[in-house]
Amino acid sequence: MINKETKKFLNKLLLYILVIFIAFYMLFPFWWAVVSSFKNEAQLQMVPATFLPRDPVTNKIFFDLKNYRSIFNDGTFLRGLLNSTIVATSVTLLALAVGSFSAFALGKLRFKGKNASLYIILAMTMFPQVTVLTGLYAVINALRLPAMASMILSYMLFTLPFTTWVLTSFFKELPVELMQSAQVDGATPFQSFKYILLPLTAPALVTTGLLAFIAAWNEYLFALTFTSIEPSARTIPVAIALFTGAVSRQEPFGEIMAAAVIVTIPIIILVLYFQKRIVAGLTAGAVKG
Amino acid sequence: MGKFKKTLAEREQILAYKLLFPSFLIMLLIAAYPLFNVFYTSFTNKRFASTVKTKVIGLKNYQKLLSVTIKKLENENQSSREVLPKKPIRYKELKRFNIGNTHYVIGASDPDFLISVGNTIYFTLWSVLLELIIGLIIALVVNSNFKGKGPMRAIMLVPWAVITVVSARIWEWMFKANRTGLFNTVISNLGLGDGQASFLTDQALQLPAIIAVDVWKTAPFMALLLLAGLQTIPTSLYEAARVDGAGPIRQFFSITLPLLKPTIAVALIFRTLDALRAFDVFQVLLADRRYSMASYNYTQLIKYKNMGMASAIGVIIFIIIFGFAIGYIKFLGVDAND
Prior knowledge:
Mean pLDDT of chain B: 87
Low-confidence stretches of chain A: 281-289
Strand content of chain B: 5-15%
Number of strands of chain A: 0
Shape of chain A: flat
Shape of chain B: globular
Oligomer: heterodimer
Strand order of the largest sheet of chain B: 1-3-2
Low-confidence stretches of chain B: none
Radius of gyration of chain B: 25 Å
Radius of gyration of chain A: 24 Å
Mean pLDDT of chain A: 86
């Protein structure tokens, strides 16, 4: 019979082993990107591959910063970072605002055509992007929208159904008593949404917001199409995809990896900043009361 | 009192429509025409970026994509070209099989498309299943109390944060068929192989490789959604269960899993939808070596300029996705009215 102390210790140990294992699994490809980003052409071609950047001749550890220098000297990369930030932030805010309105209606209000609305919103996102591209392009042209606005609107095709559905499931989870007691106190349904339910879904809003932000930050095909005649609006995935090597026809793998590292850092900072909100646990208290 | 109640219900209904208005306006603006356009174009022979006049050809695109036939072969080695019909449409060999001593061949007028459907469904089932399991484990671990759980929550999102196209390139780089690649270096260092495994050209390794990339990339998406779901479960329930003497496994199956069901359902729906439309990973890693439905669609449009055909593929993908979505919704019971 194991006593309580040992059992507790073993549980803790098991947890930390799992944590380390997960961290390793999540990070090893990224670590490989970081290592590769510090290698020059000769170092990238070494056989066998080295787990840290090494000099091909002396085999000493040697970090080459050339890839980073070249992406920062390239104006399109920094411009792309700025464009992506603007586009992804606007998409997230718009999708959250519009999505949370719909989600409140779908999750908490009684009205005719509720299921149909839910399915129509979902059906928006059921076509492959390639297929809707030409039709969407025609719409954007007819509306005479600039590239940035085109991207923001067209990304709604996948972010709006997502935010609406996830938030709906969270609104449904909130106890009805909360709204009822607010209404007894004289609040209109909209007031109880704005002042009581919405703050309670803050963790869900932050979570879906982050996921939507990253999805928009990642999007490639629409961005490539809509910025084809307006290169100054290119987002970061397009800018990276259009990198050309210093040596002609050679793929600039090192530079692509350096760019990957640079564009992932803002997201990590964003997550670190918001992670407390993600797990605010606000609802746990509200349900009891 | 009765009258008051009715007006309240009416007001609720009006409020609901007002709240839904912005969503529907956006959909009308950006989705209505493109979606209608896909349906219409799928019944035509429209060419992409061409001046050739478009004609309505009815169901011909669908017929070309979906026609299948089975013919008997005289012996195992007979060429399928001898038995498969050539008119009105030409059939090519899709697969051979035998029942007892009789050999058969399945012919399809577009075997590449049907293979791409098979690839996509195989890919979807495996990657979504693995993502759910790994995502759930990660969410449960990150949800428990330990030192450094803040940074861990950021680490857990790294794969999802790496741009899809770029992460496909990172994996392409790791999958190199010689020892400049990470996997082959590790495999040969461990003495498990000759360091020449070609993950992306060997037929048997292609789908597992691509599933590995997708699971790594999107397990965080699942994990974060499930974590948010776990947060809404009141801790008091676990305290009560502990008082009643329920162990962690019992708690997981009788509290966590049932209360997490709506979140799991939504996460499954969106991951499945995404996997069925998988494009970037297939296009970057396998290109013309092996298609997903969406990358085959892309090839038809960009390489062969068959816009009518590409639209028909889009509609078929839509129908398959719709089927999956309805299946999930019915099976997991996430309808709005409950």
